[in-house]
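Long-time lurker. I teach an intro course on protein structure, and each term I like to show students one example going from raw sequence to a predicted 3D structure in token notation. This year I'd like something fresh instead of my usual example. Would anyone be willing to generate the tokens for the chain below so I can use it in lecture? Attribution to the forum is fine with me.
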Amino acid sequence: MPDLLNDFLTHLAKERDVSPNTVVAYARDLGELRDFLGRHYGDPNWAWPQVDRLALRSWMAHLARRGLAKRSIARALSAARTFFRFLHANDLVPSNPARAVGSPKIEKYLPGHLERRQVDTLLQALQTRAQEGRHRDVMALAMIELLYSCGLRLSELRGINRADLDLLAGQVKVRGKGRKERILPVGSHAQRALREFERKRDDVLARVGTAGDRQAFFLSDRGKRVSRSGIHKVITGWLSQVDEGAGLSTHSLRHTFATHLLDAGADLRAVQELLGHASVSTTQIYTHTSVERLKQVYRQAHPRA
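-- Reply from a regular --
Happy to contribute to a lecture. Here you go:
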């Protein structure tokens, strides 16, 4: 059997130019589908053209039994649909069986975010620690200020290069999903924190010499672009000090950014552009957060609520 899955992943990376993170996600989901189908058919010579709707429904049931969330199952089914659409377009399968499989109804949720007083508490604590001058603390302050100032995704933060930052103009260029670029304003507090870290960055580069990554902005104390896990560990460590049981993550600062803008009356379309959402419907979940807050205020304040 030709390695059609590998051909598809190459098509995504080379022809459609999707982001590396998306390719990795497709590879993971479709690799699990391939392994499941091998067990499902019990035949080492099974082939993609024989896969039908019932086999895919069995796969989804298998994912549910493993305890995957509906959102994760829907994502995996979306990967299968895209894969079979590729196969069908190249006359490698007679039809797309994934089209006949219904996607699970995804539960709605309100994203976790910080209250304004919590943001103030967090940043005051960070500023106090950063004054001691340790590289890790100065970087943490710069990262959190920038995440809250611009509503960045973790991957966007990590991917920032020195050339992407214009601190005189107060703006940063980021690369979002689908490699789409957008230019965002950077607040004055974040600008100050970034300048402080830039001095630490220059010190690191001077110390490590040619071994340092001179392109990346956020560098570890060894001069390398800071890893995803490194960013996550630093930021979640600080967020847990604000609200230990809330399960806040790096993405919570993005939610906080959007919620605070909308609470202050920002235009939904403008917030959509700032967040880099392809559809305004994705941004609308933050309006639900604001409505829930209004309801809470109403219940607390109105005498006949």
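Some talking points for your students: The beta strands are 165-166, 171-175, 181-185. The mean pLDDT is 89.
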